[in-house]
TrEMBL record:
This is DUF721 domain-containing protein. It comes from Sphingobacterium micropteri. It comes from the Bacteria. It holds the Pfam family DciA.
Length: 104
């Protein structure tokens, strides 16, 4: 006879930890802050390490992504990639979080 291990027995009330965390975030209305912080933390993955290393400040306010860089070359490159960056950021989170991209 085959005996199931205790860990393998699932009931209809079992919920994964991801689902629990998602529900908690929605319940306490933390979705926007969670998305904003995940974008800031993932900035090197989204834009690339070379540009991310030259980024001095990044934050999101009122669906606007603000990025501060001192290099004129990087500013120009970011300005040309404006639409692509907005698309990458929103794709990373899975929904629209950023509508404008402002270079400081």
């Amino acid at each position: 006879m085959y005996k199931k291990k205790l860990d393998e027995i699932h009931t209809k009330d079992d919920v994964g930890i991801k689902e629990v965390i998602e529900k908690w975030i929605e319940t306490y209305r933390l979705r926007s802050k969670y998305d904003e912080s995940s974008i800031v933390n993932a900035w090197p993955d989204i834009i690339g390490k070379a540009i991310a290393n030259r980024t001095q400040q990044i934050y999101i306010h009122d669906k606007k992504l603000f990025v501060k860089v001192e290099s004129a070359v990087i500013k120009n490159e970011l300005a040309m990639m404006r639409r692509q960056i907005i698309g990458r950021v929103n794709e990373y989170v899975g929904h629209v979080v950023v509508e404008e991209f402002i270079i400081l």
